[in-house]
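Dock flavin-adenine dinucleotide; give full complex structure.
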Amino acid sequence: MNIIKKTVVIIGNGMVGHRFCEKLLAKSNQFNLIIFSEEPIRAYDRVHLTDYFKNTAVNDLYLSDSNWYYSNNIDLHLNDPIIAIDKEQKFVQSKQGVQISYDFIVFATGSAAFVPPIPGIDKQGVFLYRTIEDLDRIKEYAPRARKGAVIGGGLLGLEAAKALVDLQIQETAVVEFAGRLMPRQIDDTASATLQNKLHTLGLHCLLHKSTTQILGDNKITGLAFADETSIAADILIVSAGIKPRDELAKEIGLATGARGGIVVDENMRTSDSNIFAIGECALHQEMIYGLVAPGYEMAEIAASTIIGEHKTFSGFDMSTKLKLMGVDVASFGDPFICEPEARTIHIEDKNKGIYKRLNISADGKRLLGGILVGEASSYNMLLQTVNNNMPIPEHPELLLFHEKLSNQPAGAGLDALPDTALICSCEGITKAQICDALTQPGCENLEDVKKCTKAGSGCGGCIPMVKDLVAHTMKQQGKYIRNTICEHFDYSRQELFDLIKIHELHHYDEVLDDLGKGHGCEVCKPLVSSLLASIWNEMILGKGNDVAQDSNDRFLANIQRGGTYSVVPRIPGGEIRPEKLVVIGEVAKKYNLYTKITGGQRIDMFGAHVNDLPFIWEELIAAGFESGHAYGKALRTVKSCVGSIWCRFGLHDSVSFAIKIEERYRGVRAPHKFKSAVSGCIRECAEAQSKDFGIIATEKGWNLYVCGNGGSKPQHALLLASDIDSDTCIQYLDRFLMFYIRTADPLTRTATWLNKMDGGIDYLRNVVVNDSLGMAEIWEREMQALVNAYQCEWKVAVNDPNIRKRFVHFVNAPDQKDETVKFDEMRGQKKAADWNTIITP
Amino acid sequence: METMTTTAWELACHIDDAVENGGVCVQIRGKQIALFYFKRRNEWYATQNECPHKKQMILSRGMTGSLGETPKVACPFHKKTFALDTGECLSGDECAITTYPVKVEAGLVYISLEN
Ligand code: SRM
Ligand SMILES: Cc1cc2nc3c(=O)[nH]c(=O)nc-3n(C[C@H](O)[C@H](O)[C@H](O)COP(=O)(O)OP(=O)(O)OC[C@H]3O[C@@H](n4cnc5c(N)ncnc54)[C@H](O)[C@@H]3O)c2cc1C
Ligand code: SF4
Ligand code: FES
């Protein structure tokens, strides 16, 4: 018998429409799926739309690969919106003239940005923030703009505002009608805390502002407000809320809400039983859900209903976390509920910019909701506590302090979570599903879980919790979690360290042949090279090891835009004699290099052709310079302040000590780069407390601080030992560095290493100062061996013809430079041509 | 030595100019070609030198390796990887790169720009 398939027409190929197809396909093959999409490209991840500004490639955002629709027999009509529907004859009509008979229609038309009717809103320079095309327009316009504004201080508005900052708009203002930011998610105090934080990112918030006019002739020049103030702006993003795309539904007489949205019942049916609506266009019990997770749940329910299963939608949790880098804001459960239904506990730490609020039930037994600003690492656990109606501790105020939570016996919170707890709300994955997946062979880490269950592949907010669950479950199963390196080595970095040492392996190929399989890759090659360097400290470009180095190490210089390199000679402690300054100037002039003083107290010369590198270094070496290892996972700089040799406050000679330390550890390779500084007194002009190790003079000696970090996640260094003399300081440093080199994961700075260490700084102090592992003597000896083996790699490279001949661009025309390298000019020096505009022949 | 008039084999370099288990760049008729010598498998590959991602003339300075059985190279700039045999991009859908036939004869490496 030939079964006639039923036809489902899906209107809209957004995130929810796409998910509906996946769901229906997984349930049945009895349907023809036909999609009409107004947008010109297939479904993409709108939640991560802002990433489009970062990596440019729309490819990274697609929800499926290009032949997914074809291979699943789905008919996808792009750039062809549905413009009419005949409910009686049951057919749809598209703009390009396609007519299709249907059995069911699914509206997944999403919503559009709401555009308030402000005079002048159609001027040039005013943009929406919803589609790839919107972002393309913004990207094109932004380079001409200097002052930005965003109307709307909600989740989306803030994301758009941050995007303007990242697009190098010099000043950006967020204009909000209400008296606080994110009015639907957080309270006044939280908003004030958030505003301070945003201010440090360069965003000014204007509250209680009703925009009355967009100023300017053709192009926007500013905004005028009802209170008769105004601001200048030459680019504006409007993010004042969403408007469900219900126009077509309305036209064909489906029931819609007074404030928009296609009315649906608990099965996602509209007022016509053959027509469904899901996602941001659907109005369920007077509610539009502007988030993707409830949309996905609606897709599941509509698909189930169509195949005849009975599933219902019963509302959805609206908890959210703002996804701005470096700004932690979360709101969960009922964030606003207060007396008499609830009692609130809150802390506000103006010093650290933290505000947390918990709403506890009147009987003190349950958590009803809350807000976290400035520190939101407990968000997932608190959300679970609310959603699963879990009992809370006798002193619920403890929940406000993350430290206290982590002092509980490991996993206490996770054990208490019921199996049904929804961990990943985007994909609807429960604790039980994740734990089950982990019992399958071959599924033992976060990536595996993501693949098997899809958990964590949506907004990513649940990833910390999934990670904890993985660790917890693996431990319960008695499995030892190993961070193996890649497909070529079934070992952790630490295991490989010991094996290389025991087997006395000196070359990458030997290590691969003896301990690995396959032919290596860009993950294990630099890792093994770094281990070989940390263990033996031999010239890293020795035979066979050169091709296993990361590009920067292979050419002993950092590669820059265009393919030229930078040259950074070591200037220990930042001290340099005038004659050497002259040499740098002369070399830079001769080879036409851009020069700049670095943040590490030395001088960087940029724009060197690969062919010129050996000649440049030959001249520098002749003048007494040596490699600065700016390219290596190695010691960078030991900064110094001028100290007692000149400064009226200086207690000791910080410059001499910085030079001594820099010369001791130069060339030592580690899991990541490491930096240091020595300050001559507590005023700390060398910024030692932001370094991997920092030394500060005291009346009685030196204070040694460790595990600080600048960079993307700054962290202050912690005091390891106080009032120690110079020799003890070096002894502790030898131990500290060898311990780090041996045990840290690849590409982990000391701060992150310490953060992961059980017992933290107290444990570290015990190991380094009290020698609790009994390793001190061995480590001191090992470090001395590395120090003795030091040689300037550039000196070796320029003097060894075999190594030197690799510094060419064309092997068959060694003297010729790469003519595609282009420079522009700026302030009398050259700069790399912008690689987004280079046109190659 | 047999004559090479029928095929358009172009002399690229001497085998000693190539790097074992790594890449070098050769210039042939004004074109930049990345040449890789996979010593571990005794295989040679040639591809365009330009990385399609940011249009940088750089693939010859990338690290070679394998993904399962597929030989690959990783661009030094942002570590996008490309299969050396087919040219296919193995990370995301960056466009594929052009590959060229290579042959080695009497210590010399030849590349054909016809593909
Ligand atoms: C040149 C310099 C900027 C400048 O003009 O001042 C610079 C330039 C680069 N930095 Fe830096 N950093 C420079 C000081 C810093 C500092 C300040 C300092 O050292 O006092 C920091 C923060 C302090 C810290 O590291 O804790 C810094 C944090 C970073 C980071 C983030 C590290 C982190 O832990 O988050 C990276 C990325 C990385 O290493 O993975 C980075 C990476 C880079 C790279 C290597 C990026 C790259 O791969 O091309 C840049 C290389 C330029 C080149 O070709 O030389 N750079 N970088 C500074 C060189 C200092 C020197 O003399 O060696
Ligand atoms: C910048 C940004 C950040 C966001 N961040 C988050 C977040 O962190 N977390 C979260 O949960 N949500 C977030 N969202 C919201 C989330 O993207 C939406 O909830 C989700 O995309 C809704 O999916 P949808 O399929 O219902 O609608 P959409 O994705 O809008 O898709 C609807 C599609 O239907 C098309 N269409 C409309 N009418 C027709 C017609 N007549 N014929 C054919 N096609 C039609 C539209 O052009 C559109 O392509 C964010 C949204 C944006 C814009
Ligand atoms: S902060 Fe450092 S890594 Fe970033 S652009 Fe500046 S120099 Fe490069
Ligand atoms: S330029 Fe090659 S990966 Fe970006």
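Observed: The pocket of FE2/S2 (inorganic) cluster (ligand 4) is lined by residues B 51, 53-54, 56, 75, 77-78, 80 (CB under 6 Å).
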